[in-house]
């Protein structure tokens, strides 16, 4: 969008590039393609987290620390995500968002499908957890381009006044993947016996990744790349080495973005992925009830997300992100204190409230991060900063939470960890500029 378009956007008049020149049908396909990729990715991650206790029994049957080892594997797969961020981000900035997204989802789905085929430790011994680690690493590498690429794709296709709303599709699809995983696991616990889940039931969710990945790949290969990227190519200003450009010219923005991601990284995995394990293992809530509570939180979270995206378009990204950080600093510990295993409705209410607080951050973050970086390094900048924080603090959140409880002896340890993440994110957003009213920069 040029300066003329920007002036129109501020005056409320129709924009010259309203809708980025794309038809309504094209934008619907863009939304669908972005949705299904993130849905598949986080469905895969969700079922691993929700079935962590079962996976621990299958792959570490003789270990006294089986659950901790299972979460350690979950965390290790995140360590390759910054590397994947450089790879997929660089690819997306050089050859286009569409191509990077099409291949990343295919690799992700294949790795997840293969996890379902691994024999348990009782059959092949130590080779079982080793194979699980290999496929989890492939998952982490391929998934690292998904969230950032889909966000950049949507922002670059969106009408200027609705970038927050369009980008909110990404966290909504993420939550939808978690929701489907939670519903499926809840159903499995309701209809299958424990031995059935341990022997073959746990494999079913991982098998579903195969067809979902092929559907996503098919849709993405039939889309045209974003107007912003095509404009960059037409002007012959795309960079050949976006990673170098990012590290040399945009390192300060990258540091700010990584800090801003911290609340999302810790909050998302603690509240929406680790919580069923926390409720059942630490507080004694029944497994079915734990999943039902998380399911209720996910349903409301999805609704909140789109409202947050619209709010950020109206009031700006920084005010909404700062509000989210402040709420977590003040209310996280009291919320965990109120969790009562004997009062199921209270557990559900607290999870819904925490999910609503998190949606203020998560619904705003994709558009905020995409707008921080210019088009020629947008994919790289988003992917590296997002995956760096998630590698260090997101994927490790279940492991750290479990470890902190063991070290401190306090079930409130995850709440303090989450509050600390909110403080860091708030500081990063404070030093960032407001991006919602700016035109997207090419370079």
TrEMBL record:
The keyword Secreted does not apply. The chain crosses the membrane at residues 42-60, 66-88, 100-124, 130-154, 166-192, 204-221, 254-272, 292-312, 319-337, 343-360, 381-405, 411-432. Residues 1-21 are annotated as: Disordered. Residues 30-437 form the Major facilitator superfamily (MFS) profile domain. Its main location: membrane. GO terms for cellular component: plasma membrane. SUPFAM superfamilies: MFS general substrate transporter. Keywords: Cell membrane, Membrane, Symport, Transmembrane, Transmembrane helix, Transport. GO terms for molecular function: symporter activity. It comes from the Bacteria. It is found in: Cell membrane. It is a multi-pass membrane protein. InterPro entries: H+-coupled_symporters, MFS, MFS_dom, MFS_sugar_transport-like, MFS_trans_sf, Sugar_transporter_CS. Belongs to the major facilitator superfamily. Metabolite:H+ Symporter (MHS) family (TC 2.A.1.6) family. May be a proton symporter involved in the uptake of osmolytes such as proline and glycine betaine. PANTHER family: ALPHA-KETOGLUTARATE PERMEASE. This is Putative proline/betaine transporter. It comes from Ornithinimicrobium avium.
